[in-house]
Write the structure tokens for this entry.
Amino acid sequence: MSPLRIIYLGLALWGAIHPMYYFIQWFQTNGYDITAMVDAWHTNAASSGLVWDLTIAAIALTVWIIAEVATRRNFIALIAIPATFCIGVSCGLPLYLFLRTRPVV
């Protein structure tokens, strides 16, 4: 495996684990209420801007993944889409780059 692929995989793992630490802390403090979490994301203009920035990035990544999968037939790369929306762009993007750089047979 190339060093670049190892970096992508490491970033995907970090992007999955590190943000979850903060989400788990929030859930332990505020309970497992998704609606309250979404409300907390929009407590001020700065956090709302960040939410929209990440939402647009996630949509752009999804469009890119679908377009490339249709061309390259690298169907395993589709797992980066649920990773992006269920975990975050910090996991989905490096995961997709990891999967994209593997040899397709």
User: Anything to note?
Assistant: The chain has a mean pLDDT of 95. Helices lie at 3-30, 34-41, 45-72, 80-86, 89-100. Residues 13 and 91 are 7 Å apart (CA to CA).
